[in-house]
Design brief:
By secondary structure, the chain is mainly alpha-helical. 73% of the residues lie in helices and 0% in strands. It contains 11 helices and no strands.
Length: 251
């Protein structure tokens, strides 16, 4: 039996097997593989304050005293409870909004999670302002940290509101930028665990040193946020797709 010429047809090696759509999938897969470490790192960054918050909730519920009690909240712990629960949802769920392929392929989830995160973030900001204004200052902190908490708590709320209004008018770029800034502000407590430790190791004493160390965490987070917002990720992705596409394929 003779071999059919179809067995060696040029169609078996058609450039359609390497179509732009296939190149797009490959680029998406590569982007996803590179993006998943980001939420893992963000959750890890928040691990210390989230663990401390969980222990505090256990303590307030009548559980074992696993950390020093904070008498400031003994009489009325509601704002602290709202702050911890809101921050937990905001830090963990918000981290997964940083995976582009996950957002694109689960758009309904992204939108619903975004609404939850907006409410949780506003809860975090409002409770932080509540505790700063109406409770005694934390021992060992000074007036500078008091002012910084008011400034960045208000800034976080403003970023969330601006991000929400931006997506309502379908301005995706502005929505992304404001939400990244809000998240960076909201998870600064994780960075403060490191800047506070570094500040504690420096020579000298006093409240100012500790206040500056904690304030540096907000500045660091927002600097990283601005870098993420302004980096040309879309142009890089388009260059990857064009590089993967065969010669003559439409770009």
């Amino acid at each position: 039996m003779s071999h059919s010429p179809m067995s060696h047809s040029p169609m078996s090696h058609s450039p359609m097997s390497h179509s732009p759509m296939t190149s797009q999938r490959q680029a998406d897969r590569l982007s996803s593989q590179r993006s998943w470490p980001v939420p893992a790192a963000l959750v890890a960054l928040s691990a210390i304050p989230l663990m401390a918050g969980t222990l505090r909730l256990v303590q307030l519920a009548g559980g074992p005293q696993l950390m020093p009690a904070d008498e400031r909240f003994a009489g009325f712990p509601l704002p602290l409870i709202l702050h911890i629960t809101g921050a937990t949802a905001y830090a963990v769920v918000g981290a997964f909004q940083f995976v582009p392929r996950f957002r694109r392929h689960h758009l309904t989830w992204h939108r619903r999670a975004g609404r939850i995160l907006t409410v949780a973030g506003l809860l975090v900001a409002a409770s932080a302002l509540w505790m700063t204004l109406l409770y005694a200052q934390q021992p060992g902190t000074g007036d500078l940290l008091y002012v910084l908490r008011l400034v960045f708590g208000s800034a976080m709320a403003a970023c969330l509101i601006l991000g929400f209004t931006a997506i309502r008018r379908r301005d995706v770029a502005a929505h992304r930028a404001w939400m990244i800034r809000a998240y960076a502000t909201g998870v600064a407590a994780g960075t403060q665990a490191f800047t506070g430790a570094i500040g504690g190791a420096l020579p000298g004493t006093g409240e100012l040193r500790g206040d500056l160390a904690k304030g540096a965490a907000w500045i660091i987070n927002l600097a990283v946020a601005e870098w993420v917002i302004r980096r040309p990720t879309r142009a890089k992705g388009q260059r990857r797709i064009r590089a993967a596409a065969p010669a003559g394929a439409p770009s």
